[in-house]
Specification:
Blueprint: H1 2-29, H2 35-54, H3 57-82, H4 88-128, H5 140-157, E1 162-168, H6 171-174, H7 183-195, E2 203-208, E3 213-218, H8 222-248, E4 254-260, H9 269-278
Antiparallel strand pairs: 1-3, 1-4, 2-3
């Protein structure tokens, strides 16, 4: 409903602005004796409207007050020095200029509300999405949901469950060396290292795209996790040797931490991640 109001406000303001422009065009065409003066004032009115669009209504109204004062002083000067009379032309622009400014301000207000609502919707969509849109990898949201299921299976059937957290060393520095349009591709390439190193019943998650961090849920104990770790590091060496360094102009290193699920020490999926990340400190 709020979105509809914002859209309606923007549409009405736009139509109102067009109507005002139409009225100005008819008025100028109907007063050929004051054509030059009217064109100059119309340009000033447009300038005030544009300034309001890029600033705010307060600035626009202050500038309109300054215009009214200066224009009034000009009309008063003409009346006193030349004996001219105050006609419809004067009242028209004293009224029309603030109206144009207000119409543009309302249009701007409606557009900004729509932009804010769009940003909120995009943020909500990102928070609810379970798959990263660029790499098609399951994300942190998926991990939180799936970890509960994995933990339940592990507890019920007494199957060991281990979480690996894989992180690219010095990623913040490395991403400055990789063009922006290749970052998602680079993340996907590194993701394939882990994906091809695990079994089909294990799961891979992109936990933090900005910091290039992955999580792997493995139905195995710490000894089995060590085998996976060695496999990932071996494949990383192959990747660096066979093309990654030439493709992205950097060599990658990984830090890998592993923690086995223990009901007494791990209360929830988030705690699972935290404890696994602590193990990264020991992998130098």
């Amino acid at each position: 409903m709020r979105r509809n109001r914002s859209s309606l406000l923007s549409d009405v303001a736009f139509l109102g602005f067009l109507v005002l422009i139409y009225i100005c065009a008819i008025f100028i065409a109907g007063a050929p004796d004051h054509y030059t003066q009217n064109i100059i004032i119309l340009n000033v009115a447009f300038l005030l409207a544009v300034i309001t669009y890029f600033t705010n209504v307060t600035v626009g109204l202050v500038l309109n007050l300054a215009f009214i004062f200066l224009y009034g002083f000009f009309v008063l000067y003409q009346t006193v020095s030349e004996g001219a009379t105050i006609g419809v032309n004067t009242y028209f622009w004293l009224l029309m200029t603030p109206l144009l400014t207000m119409a543009v301000w309302i249009l701007t207000l409606g557009n900004r509300q729509l932009q804010e609502e769009n940003a909120v919707l995009q943020k909500k969509a990102a928070s609810l999405a379970s798959v990263d849109e660029n790499t098609d990898l399951r994300n942190n949201i998926s991990f939180q949901k799936d970890a509960v299921l994995f933990i339940g299976i592990s507890t019920r059937y007494q199957i060991p469950l281990t979480l690996l957290v894989v992180k690219v060393k010095y990623w913040k520095e490395i991403r400055r060396l990789i063009p922006e349009d290749q970052l998602s591709e680079a993340i996907y390439d590194v993701s394939q290292l882990s994906q091809t190193s695990i079994r089909t019943n294990d799961a891979l998650y992109l936990l933090d795209k900005e910091d290039a961090t992955w999580g792997l849920l493995l139905f195995t104990d710490r000894d089995g996790a060590k085998i996976v770790i060695e496999r990932i590091k071996y494949k990383l060496q192959e990747l660096n040797d066979t093309g990654f360094s030439s493709k992205y102009k950097v060599n990658l290193g990984l830090k890998i931490g592993a923690v086995e699920y223990q009901a007494d020490n791990i209360e929830n999926p988030f705690d699972f991640i935290v404890q696994a990340k602590k193990q990264l400190e020991y992998d130098v």
